[in-house]
Amino acid sequence: MRALRLHGPRDLRVDEVPEPRVVPGTVKVRVGWNGICGFDVRNYLDPVLPDEYLHPVLRTHGPHVQGHEFSGRVQECAPDVRGLSEGAVVAVEPLVFDGSCAACRRGEYNLCENHGFIGLMGGGGGMSEYAVVPADRVHPMPEGASPTVAALVEPLAAAWHAVRRSGMRAGDTVLVVGGGPVGLGVLMAARARGAGHVTVSEAAPLRRRIAEELGADRVCDPARQDAVAAVRGRAPAGADVSFETSGGGTGAVSALLGALRRGGRAVVVSEGRPVVLDPAVLASTEIELVGSFGYGPRDFPEVIAAIAAGSLSPKPLVTDRLCLEEARERGYEELIAHAGGHVKILVHP
Q1: Fewest C-beta in 10 Å: which of 52, 86, 101, 255?
Q2: Domain Alcohol dehydrogenase-like N-terminal, which positions (predicted)?
Q3: Using one digit for the tens of pLDDT, what is the confidence trace for 263-319?
Q4: Residues 6+ apart with CB under 8 A from 171
């Protein structure tokens, strides 16, 4: 079968590789669509793992098939797998864990000491015609849901988890710094969970327009409009919760904290430029600054339920669709050169 594998920095190749076979406890998925995310691009530029490294859970060496945001249809189930029918549209949850560390025992498998991602660290990936994945990583979609929508569940689950981490309540005032795939996902998740007013600060015109389409109450261009002033013009005491999804460094975090009310909560979802922070800002205001990583046991099912209920409609996030042979130039390289001109590029193998 054809698969897109990473052979080194900026060295993606469509290779012929053996078609994977099911083993006990696994499902073979005919991949439908796979999204390219910011971490995929950073890994393309500077691979995080050498080919000889064996992840303790995935146990496969490189060159690795790429793609961790993927969907497809069930092709085959191992004999011991129940509850999945052939042809069913599914979303794949790529985060794997050892199940034995302290975090896993607490039910926080995203914080597992040996966590990893299918499609980044081994185990196949969504940039291939087929992938064999553990059955508990496969989530059936509701009747009528397309593989396109299913491919967006993974980034939406990360956004959903971030909103959970914020403690946001219905009616709260929210600021989202950054309107990329995660930021727009946070906007959608906050709206679905009852946010009262959402401001999005984003530099790229396309992303600002999509933020408006997805229900942002106020959209700011940080080059022209101060996000803190915009939020406090609406809520003089400040936002209840804020999210940093841009990776913009000290300036972005200054807006993140400056827009908050005393006792509010700021959630950092992104990686990016270094940040200079005076801890006294937190001490004197009792603002809580927390992180959010990946997703937990409730997030995929809750996102899929919200899609089924119609409170999440993520198709506007898709800005281009490519075949596997186009992925390197029109996907990865395009996002390096013109990230602001896209939200989510999907690849069909």
Answers
A1: 52
A2: 24-143
A3: 999 999 988 888 888 888 899 999 999 999 999 999 999 999 999 999 999 999 999
A4: 194, 195, 196
